[in-house]
Design a protein that fits this description.
- The longest helix has 24 residues.
- This protein folds into 2 domains: about 45 residues, Arc Repressor Mutant, subunit A; about 150 residues, Orthogonal Bundle (Tetracycline Repressor, domain 2), CATH 1.10.357.10.
- Helix 11 packs antiparallel against helix 12.
- The N and C termini lie far apart (about 75 Å).
- It has 13 helices and no strands.
- By secondary structure, it is mostly helical.
Amino acid sequence: MMAEPATAKPQASLDRLRRAARRLFVSQGYHSTRPQDIAREAGVANGTFYLHFKDKRAAFLDFADQTQHDLHDRYLASLDGVTDQRARWRVIFDTIIDFSIEHPGVLHAAFFDPVFIAPDEPEAWMLYDRMGHIVEMAAGSDEALARIREHYDIELVSHAVCGMLRQALAYGWRKQVPRAQLIEELTTFIDRAFRLDAGDTQTNRDTRG
């Protein structure tokens, strides 16, 4: 029987620690989770935790990073071949809802908590700023993105969309709004906002000025 590669065991223990950290950070919260809890949940020695992570905060930021990559990969797979901007928004909202259902509590922890847990860490802010890419992803083409940029700060409105979506999902769950209705109304609202013509947008800017 062929010997297991030397890198296999460290990778296996890292994968187990990541799964355990994800479960505990979501179910117990960051502050109630200790490194030894993660190690025990993963079925490894306490020292193994520190082979992979400097401390609990590093483990949390890794959890956030892994989750965001998972969601991004889902976006790419779901949006493949979808060119219409309205349809792309619908796919994005649909993907987020599916992910939220499959992994309750994970998105909030992965996207919003890092800057509260590690406000002095540039990595935490970098993770938070990934929310600023949602409009860029929905645009679907350089031409569409350029049109949006004429009227909006892309990152600013991306964060606004993410905040709106977070509140809308919470409201929809509490009020049991049908999923199809939730997605259609959010899609219509966002699509109309990003299809404002230059005259409308300039009028709004003049009014604000």
